[in-house]
Structures are given as C-alpha cells and as structure tokens.
UniProtKB/TrEMBL annotation:
Pfam families: Cu-oxidase, Cu-oxidase_2, Cu-oxidase_3
Keyword Mitochondrion among record annotations: no
Gene Ontology cellular component terms for the protein in this record: apoplast
Cofactor: Cu cation
Cofactor note: Binds 4 Cu cations per monomer.
Organism, as annotated: Quercus rubra (Northern red oak)
Signal sequence, renumbered to the chain: 1-26
Protein name according to UniProt: Laccase
GO-annotated biological processes: lignin catabolic process
InterPro entries assigned: Cu-oxidase-like_N, Cu-oxidase_2nd, Cu-oxidase_C, Cu-oxidase_fam, Cu_oxidase_CS, Cu_oxidase_Cu_BS, Cupredoxin, CuRO_1_LCC
Domain of life of the source: Eukaryota
Length: 579
C-alpha cells in the first residue's frame, strides 16, 4: 500500500492523429474485440479494493470502429456474479439481441460463460459509450465507444488530436452493498467518495495528487474532446479554466456549432467539443479542467469536484507534476452546482446540424402521443419491516405510477417466441392514471403509493410516436435523464411546470431540434420527444440515474415487425444466454 500511495500514477496524454483508424474504407469491415469480466485490485484515495473490470482496465478499453462496420464483442464472464454489456446509443437495427439490458433483451451472462454481441453500426458516427447493464455494475464497467465517420467532419478547423474524457464515480466501499442496502430498507443510497476523469480523481481528494489526468497540448492547436458521462447517479458540469468550448456533437449526432464556457452532461450523454489552446499559461504551463455535479435532488450527493489539467507543451524537459490546489479554489467557467438557469440555457442551445448531408428527419406529424409522469414515490412501509426512507417509508420511482419490475425471463425472447405464459402485460397506461398539478403538489403529503408490475407499450412498425415526459414534485422537483434504447429521438420541446397539450405543441421546434438518445427532463418540468419507431424489437426506456432505475423509473416498449425481412427482427444468436 505504501508504495502505491507514494508512486505517481498520472495519466499524461499526448495524442497523435489515429491515421490507421481515420482512413476511408470502401467495404464493410468486421471488427472483433474480447472482453473478459474479471476482478482487479485498484487503489484510489488510498483505498485498495477488488474492482470489477474489463480486461483488468479501469475505465475499460475503448471500442473504436468505423461507420458501417460489423462489430463482434465476445464477453467472457470470469466472475461468479451475472453480467451484461450495453452499447449505449447504438441503434441495434434488427439486432435487439445485442442491446444488453438484463431480462429485457437477454438473460444475463452467468459466471464462466461467454456471449458474443454481434451488430452493425448503421448510419451513426461520433462518440458513445458502453457499460454494464446489470445492477450497479456500470460503476466500474464502462468505456468509450468511438465511431469514426466515412466522410470528413462537417467543420473545417484542423484537429491536432482527439481526446476521450470519461467521467465516472468512485466508492471506497462495495458498490453492490450500497445498492443492496438501498433496496433492502428503501432509503437513499450512500453517495460516491469521488468523481473521476478517465478513472483518476485528481488533486482535490485525499491521497490523490498522484492520480491526476493531464492532457498535453500545443499552443495554437485545436483538439476534439470526446466527453462522456459514465457516472452512476450524477449529472455534471464541465469546464476548462480560461478556455471556451465549441460544441459540435451531442450523443453521436452533429450539432450546429456554438461556443460556451461550460457544458452540462447527464449520465449516458456524450458531447464533442473543440478546444483551442490559445491562452498564455503561467510558469506551471497548466490550466485546470474540472467537473462537478449539477444538483436538483434533496437526497445526499457527492459534493465534490474532480480536477485535471490542460498542460501547454514546452521545449523544456521539466518533471510534470500536478500543482497543489487549495480546496477553496474558484474554478473559472464552472457554474454553481444548483445553476438550473445555466443547465437550461445550455440545453436550449443544442440544435441539429440539419444540413443536406446530415438532415434532421424529425416526424412532423404523429400517430400516437403518450404522456407519462416520471416520478419519485414514497411507499408505505410493509408491516413488521424496517424502512429508512422519508417518514419511515420506502423510496420507489415510477412512470405513470407504474414502478417497473423486471421479469425472470428475457422479454425479447418471450416476445420473439410468442410465449403465452409471460410475466408481463401490454397495457402500459398512455396517460397519467390521475390528472393533478404534477409539479405543484406537496412533495410529501400529496405523494401516491405506486403500483408494481411489468406493463409494456406495443406499437406497429413505423409509428411516429411522441412521448411527453412530465416531471412531478413528489419528494422533490428533480432533473431526470431519460434514455431510450434502440432509437434516437428528437427533443421537440421542453419547459417548466405542467405540459399543456392545447398550447405547448404549437411552440415545438420541428425544424432543427436536437437528436439524442438521452434527454434530461427539466427539474419541475417536462420534455417532449418524437421517435420514428422503425426498429423491431423490445426496447428499454429508463432514468439513467441508476438509483432511480433500481426504484422502478422505467418502462419497455415493443416495436412489432413490419413488412418483409428488412423490417423484421433477426433470429436470436445460437449462444444467447439462458435464464
């Protein structure tokens, strides 16, 4: 331990253009990867613990492919617990078997077994991520998924190099124990002990000066930062002192470029920004880059900041060492933790590129509108049980007052085989069961007990569907990042308060709304998204704050097969895991 606590473990990066991956291909390439799920002892904050990893790496390895490539990832589970891997943001056209959420599209991979995720990256390019989709395993099982385009970037600035920036969270203790206690007693989970940049917490945490991310840059050059929020339970602000960020992509979709002093990125979201090294550094040659939480919850949270450095390259060969930072350092450009105005303004600035090469194909007319509350709930404590939520009750969460219960069999497999003895029904309510002042009700006295079950929404192939995600003030007005599997969607509108079906659709942006796979529903407000349901299969919709998913803030929708093979789900692979 002493050696680990005194030897420097900086991640210092000087990148060059990846010419081998950036070349053009005239034919489809199959890229193969091997993931071994295994334990490895990892030390952070001077705490050493066994950590669940892929190939012994923390964060896990980067998947780098080209638009149009076939991808095969053989996942071998070398630990005793179950696992699955999700390729977050990959549409999985006709290949829902490779999507990954446990008991939704597959049974878990058991200890000692393997499963090969096989899919094609179709009409997608940019920065995404992969992560475990079983329990809270994505606390450490995550990594970047980079799709290089076949055409040049739609911006003319020369890029010196590309820099993946992955945010995560670190617990000194056992994350599984945190989840288990939360579910056993119905209380809020213990918050993490640190945030990380590429697995490193940085010098503001105890015993962590040696664990600092430092990115070397040349003055006058421009860099593409691929920013990924893989944190478990926190939305994050990110900024670099004295530098502006030019946003050019969000969730692997090009945007109209705009400059900003900071970005807000929710768990599961990605943002590509251009950073030009155009400042004059001091004698250290360094500028702070930092991330801290955007907070809308009343629950305990990790009130800390992870920091790294942008180091300007010099001709000298001095030793690179992170400078000592006072804990009260004012981080230039970084918003305050509760700055909802900034978070909202940033989100409103995002617009699809909507060019001839990259059109914005938002559905102008819809076939179905679903309005669903996204809510926390306070459940009465069962008799003779100990409950540690507010008022000695239990915390849960729901959509339209339905708290999602995962079945014991894969929903996709049951759907494909037309099984009749299934654990789900197809009657998910398409509007709230009771109309009320969703964002104005008393957080505690107006709270409803939720219902539990596995109710699904079924739509025909090709349905133009609008989903209005309506926040509530139950327990707290909170920002919820909602992720949709298997489809991108367009955020056509959002606002504070209650959605008004008679007035709000008239204010939608149907010209260049942002296209995403994860949308933060504003605190005490709503977001309207439009989806072209053209991907047959079974698809998970859930809050990407893992504690809320554990409490049941999720639903599933099925897209039926269309006409012919090209509109139908592929058969299951032979090595599909069994329950």
């Amino acid at each position: 331990m002493e050696g680990l606590c005194h030897h420097y473990r900086f991640l210092i990066v000087t990148l060059v253009v990846l010419s081998g991956l950036r070349q053009s291909y005239s034919s489809t390439t199959t890229r193969q990867f091997e993931f071994n799920i295994e334990w490895k002892k990892v030390t952070r904050l001077c705490h050493t613990k066994p950590l669940l990893t892929v190939n012994g790496e923390y964060p896990g390895p980067t998947i780098a492919v080209h638009e149009g490539d076939n991808v095969e990832v053989k996942v071998t589970n070398r630990v005793s617990m179950n696992t699955t891997i999700h390729w977050h943001g990959i549409r999985q056209l006709r290949s829902a078997w490779a999507d990954g959420p446990a008991y939704i599209t597959q049974c878990p991979i058991r200890g000692g077994q393997s499963y090969t995720y096989n899919f094609t990256v179709i009409d997608q390019r940019g920065t995404l991520l992969w992560h475990a989709h079983y329990g809270w395993q994505r606390a450490s099982l995550y990594g970047a998924f980079i799709i290089y385009p076949r055409m040049p970037y739609p911006f003319s600035v020369p890029i010196q190099s590309e820099v993946p920036i992955i945010f995560g969270e670190w617990w000194n203790g056992d994350v599984d124990a945190v989840e288990n206690e939360m579910m056993l007693y119905g209380g809020g989970p213990n918050s993490s002990d640190a945030y990380t940049i590429n697995g490193l917490p940085g010098p503001l945490y105890p015993c962590s000066k040696k664990d600092t991310f430092i990115q070397t840059v040349e003055r006058g050059k421009t860099y593409l930062f691929r920013i990924i929020n893989a944190a478990l339970n926190d939305e994050l602000f990110f900024a670099i002192a004295n530098h502006t960020l030019t946003v050019v992509e969000a969730d692997a979709v090009y945007t109209k470029p705009f400059t900003t002093r900071a970005i807000m990125v929710a768990p599961g979201q990605t943002t590509n920004v251009l950073v030009t090294a155009n400042q004059v550094p001091d004698s250290s040659g360094m500028f702070v880059m930092a991330a801290k939480p955007y907070v809308t919850a009343v629950f305990p949270f990790d009130n800390s900041t992870t920091a790294g450095f942008l180091k300007y390259k010099s001709t000298s060969t001095e030793k690179i060492e992170a400078p000592t930072l006072p804990t009260n350092l004012a981080f230039h450009n970084l918003p305050e933790m509760k700055d909802t105005v900034y978070a909202t303004t940033f989100s409103k600035m995002l617009r699809s590129l909507a060019s001839p090469e990259y059109p914005c194909n938002v559905p102008k007319k819809i076939d179905k509108r679903v309005i669903t509350t996204v809510s926390l709930n306070l459940q009465d404590c069962p008799a003779n049980k100990t409950c540690k939520g507010a008022l000695d009750k239990r915390f849960f969460a729901s959509m339209n007052n339905q708290s999602f219960v995962r079945p014991f069999k894969s929903v996709l497999e049951s759907h494909y085989k037309n099984l009749t003895n299934v654990e789900y029904s197809t009657d998910f309510p398409e509007k709230p069961p009771t109309a009320f002042d969703y964002t104005g009700i008393d957080p505690l006295t107006g709270n409803m007990n939720t219902e539990f079950g596995t109710k699904l929404l079924v739509v025909p192939y090709g349905t133009n569907m609008e989903i209005v995600l309506q926040g509530t003030s139950f327990l707290n007005r909170e920002n919820h990042p909602i992720h949709v599997h298997g489809h991108n969607f367009f955020v056509v509108g959002s606002g504070f308060g209650n959605f008004d079906v008679a007035k709000d659709p008239a204010k939608y942006n149907l010209v260049d709304p942002p296209e995403r796979n994860t949308v933060p529903v504003p605190t005490g407000g709503w977001a309207a998204i439009r989806i072209k349901a053209d991907n047959p299969g079974v698809w998970f919709i859930h809050c990407h704050l893992e504690e809320h998913t554990s409490w049941g803030l999720a639903m599933v929708f099925i897209v039926k097969n269309g006409v012919g093979q090209s509109q139908s789900l592929l058969p299951p692979p032979k090595d599909l895991p069994l329950c």
